[in-house]
Amino acid sequence: MPVFKHSLQHLATISLFAASLVLHAEEPPLPAGPLIAEVAPQTAPAATRPPSGKDKLEKPSAAPQPLAAPAAVSATGAPQPKPAALLPDLLFDPSGLPIPTEPTSPPPPFQPEEEDDAPGMAESLAVNLVKHMVEQGIITPQAGEALFKKAEADVAAAREKRLARRAARQEAEQFAQQTGTGEGTGEKIRVTYVPEVVKQELRQQIKQDLLAEAKKELTSTVLPEWVEAWHPFVDFRLRYEYDSFPVGNATNGAFPNFNVINTGPPYDTSSVLFAPQINSDQDRQRMRLRLRIGSEIDLGDNFTLGVRLGTGDTNSPVSGNQSFGSTNTAPGGAVNTQGGQFSKYAIWLDRAFLKWEPVDSLTFTIGRFDNPFFSTAAIWSEDIGFDGILIQGRHVFEESGISPFITLGTFPVFNTDLHFASNQPAKFESRDKWLHAAQFGAEWKINKDWHAKAALAYYYFQNIEGKLSTRYIPRNIEDQGDTDHTRPSFAQKGNSYRALRNIDNTTALNGFGANNQFQYYGLASPFRIAAGTFRVDYNGFEPFQVSLMGEYIENLAFNKGTTGAAAVNNLGTGGFDGGNKAWDLNLRFGTPELHKKGDWFAYIGYTHRESDSVVDGFNDQNFGGGGTNLEGYSLGAALALSPRVNAAIRWMSANQIAGPQYKNDILFFDINAKF
Predict the structure, then answer these.
(1) 3-state DSSP call for residue 618?
(2) What is the C-alpha to C-alpha distance for residues 151 and 143, in angstroms, rounded to an integer?
(3) What is the pTM (predicted TM-score) of this model?
């Protein structure tokens, strides 16, 4: 208890002293008086009890007199060192409280260039506080002197640092004036340049990190834990499309629509009617909608589940466009009422996959997913999805800036119906179609301005070509041949086709070929495709980028003699005129991405796609109406109206390469939105 009381006494004494400093700071300073050279701690006789709290609160009967300066003695009577050099000069007011002998002036304003080495208010307050503690016997003079010595050492060290900084700053200014750099000449100091594309990548990365962190904080405090794993997305496109066909295109039945034939009843070649034909002479305009909505879901342990739904006139693998008010007329006059008269539109399952990334450089994916190959639209449509199994690997060499990558996949293209043929008790042999593909490539960050990417790919289509059936006589439209399932289940136009049914016309059952000539058509050439793709980006015009992308493609399995002997289309005046090569070249200028309002880019491109260079059912659905056997130019531009909305325009002019004249000009105007 005595210790506790003694501590309270010290605390009260210090508080009273601090209060007096605040009060006297607002009063005029007293005139200078005699100085106190020495002060020794006042100790009560041993028999005297310490003053109580009540005694401290009682007002004294008379004002205390200034203390003399007796010689300092210790409790044992030994002389103590004099603290005269230790304590600053003080006066005492009538209440017995010490006051400064000199008027206290406010500290000078802070000068970052010329630091003041004189003691400041904080230093004066500390000195007075230590002195008062010595006076009251809270600490010994030796302890007080030790505190002052340490403080003086700290002040000296700080002063040395300030002087060193001042000297360094003066030296830097002199150097800047001598070398002509810095503020002395009005020039900016040269700093390392950071390309705009890198800055944009950093901004996007920081933005994504902040959003992820904010979402994590939100979901951990407000939303259920499972919500954090969902990453939804939506994209919307409204397109105006104008299709124009210049005068001179053939209208003599030279352009059969093999997709309509193969997805409907077989065509009777003995009929007086033309086979279904593609449009080659009448201009059309359409308003088209594309909506895709989906999500990627983090399952934990490096597993991701993805799903996407989308619109579409049909289940076409290359287009999600839904034409407003569309009605598609099939052979025989049947009408597909998908749209028209404000009818509702269908939604298709567009993506569904499971992805596992055991390490950063290796990924396994199964299901239905985006195109994993580095390619152009000459071989793969921008909307195509792949079904199957995928392995992707990548490694980054930081020192060289080279990142090699590999993509391997096996994808089922067509699976024979379980009950084929449906009208035969003995079923026909399966002939499933597969795509086996491999791509090897590398990205190279050459320097801050140049970036390159290149890859070689091989695509092996197993059983993609059509096969001639066993010889038979189809008795009616439903009588199937044993190779009917080798016809493509989807096609655009351009590939060379052959008849699949080997019809016996040597008997009277079909009038010796005069009737019942029901026919389907398959691809006349096999496809083993080699492709080389490259892209070079130049960022020297920041914030703009110049990009050149190209691809060369060749169908190594194509044999012009064999294919031409069976082909029923792509025939010129000298016979079969098909080919097996394609190339695509595009030059683009503008901002790399449409990240903010006002971002833009423009491009020009040329493409040449011979008839059997690629499978026409999987490549670009826009140029020339889709497919192969086309060449020509494309022009386009896009402008960001906001970070999530942009407008785009594109014009394409295509000419057919082999066969009769077919020209097609198409104009797109798009409004795109995404979330």
Answers:
(1) coil
(2) 12
(3) 0.69
